[in-house]
Amino acid sequence: MSDLTTPNSALVHNGFEIPRTASELTFADTLGSWKARWGIGRMNYVVAPGLYASGEPTSHSPVFVSANYKMSFDRLRSSLKGRNGWILVLDTKGINVWCAAGKGTFGTSELVNRIRITKLHEVVDHRMLIVPQLGAVGVSAHIVKKLSGFRVKFGPVRAKDIPAFLDAGLSAMPEMREVRFPLMDRLVLAPMEIVGGAKYILIAIIVFFLLSGIGKFGFSTDEMMHSGISSAVNLLVIYLTAAILGPVLLPWLPGRAFSLKGFWIGLAVGILIIFSSRIVNVNTAGWALIAMSSASFMVMNFTGSSTFTSLSGVRREMKVAVPLQIIGEVLGFGLWIAGRFM
Amino acid sequence: MTVMKYLADVVTLELDTEKCTGCGMCVVVCPHKVFEIENRKAKIVDRDSCMECGACAMNCEFGAISVESGVGCAAGVIIGAIRGTEPTCGCDSSSGSGCCG
Q: A226 and A92, same structural domain?
């Protein structure tokens, strides 16, 4: 757990000693968030739940609620630069606000509980909390009010809009309430796409590598080295193209279903494989099928990272796409194996 | 930038105008501008943009909104099918998928 507070600078307020946090992010914070994007130490990227002071808050200062995923907390505290406020960090098991709200850990009962544990009633005079809008998936404002006496005011979706929200008298412009999915937001997720499936692609490469040695004359190490490397290259190209181009090209790939969007990427890679080997045969046709089904599957999985797909929609597209992907993979693999004996 | 839309006519979102008081909470919490207030009642103006997050139903004091909420995540559906549970994203385990960034 990272220490975000400077010792000896705790704020003593109404008889409570409350840790103070800096609004300036350090190099270590930036490095930490870069590592989390690549999946390094991601599950331990947490801050201790509880109440923090930002600046020199008083009994009248606003209370901002956050998750204990360090990236969520960092975004909030850096957006409060030059302002005084309280930050109430919920125990969301190191998960960001939106996902935790979906799971219920960033939720009504944790919020009410955390208010009680931190004795927030005694720290502040007012009875209002600013909760990030995406927390509304797990926090029921009217029930929080009933159980704790605190009124929940939903703030903007993005922490960077908090200053504007405060300056406008706690009112968010419509665009501050909308979740979009611009290029940069999609791009920062690509590293996790690459890291997330790394072990599966590694297994696939090993399997293809070993099978590459099999041919009509039995097992040959030379053949394994030669054909195995080209199989590994094909698999890596399919994998990286889908993991990077899927998120990047998302709005422009034809079709609404993610599996269809991925299919186009696989088709392009399949054509590339056929062109680069300058031959259409059982082997390259097999690779094209593997590319189409694999890329379709990978981009379909990106629904989990996207900000606009519904569960009902995902179920509907999977009903059609998954059987086709399985058929494509089996057929592609079968053709590739058959190619070894021709 | 145009707003990306997912599949049409698929979401489970329902609004009971009888129970609606027009308080506007759904307009506040919806991240995709699905609702508008018209003549002191909420109205679904962009149904296909709904991602079934459930924030509106969770914050409707009058029980006017229902939606079968869940994670719109293919990996989650697969994990759920394997474990025999509801769809759940893998972000609480070390095998975490790309979600929850």
A: no
Chain B residues in contact with A188 (beta carbon < 8 A): 101
Residue in A93, A182, A313 nearest the CB of B7: A313
Three-class SS state of A16 = strand
The 10s digit of each residue's pLDDT in A21-58 is: 888 888 888 888 888 888 877 777 889 999 999 999 99
Architecture, CATH, for domain B14-92: 2-Layer Sandwich (3.30)
Whether residues A159 and A294 fall in one domain: no
Please say which residue of A152, A179, A206 terminates a domain. A179
Do A305 and A192 touch, CB atoms closer than 8 A?
Answer: yes
Q: Which domain holds residue A76?
A: 11-179
**For A188-279, where are the alpha helices, taking DSSP H only?**
190-196, 198-211, 221-249, 258-277
Q: Does the predicted TM-score (pTM) go above 0.95?
A: no
Q: Are residue A58 and residue A94 in the same domain, yes or no?
A: yes
Sequence-distant (≥ 6) Cβ neighbours of residue A184 within 8 angstroms: none
Contact assessment for residue A154 and residue A132, using Cβ atoms and an 8 Å cutoff: yes
Quote the tokens at residue A111.
């919020």
Q: Is residue A5 part of a domain?
A: no
Q: Which of residues 10-69 of B touch A (CB under 8 A)?
A: 10-12, 25, 28-33, 49-55, 58-59, 61, 68-69
- Taking the CA of residue A110 and the nearest CA in chain B, the distance in Å comes to 15
pLDDT tens-digit series, residues A171-199: 999 999 999 999 999 999 999 889 989 99
CATH code, A37: 3.40.50.11600
What residues form DSSP beta bridges with A131? A154
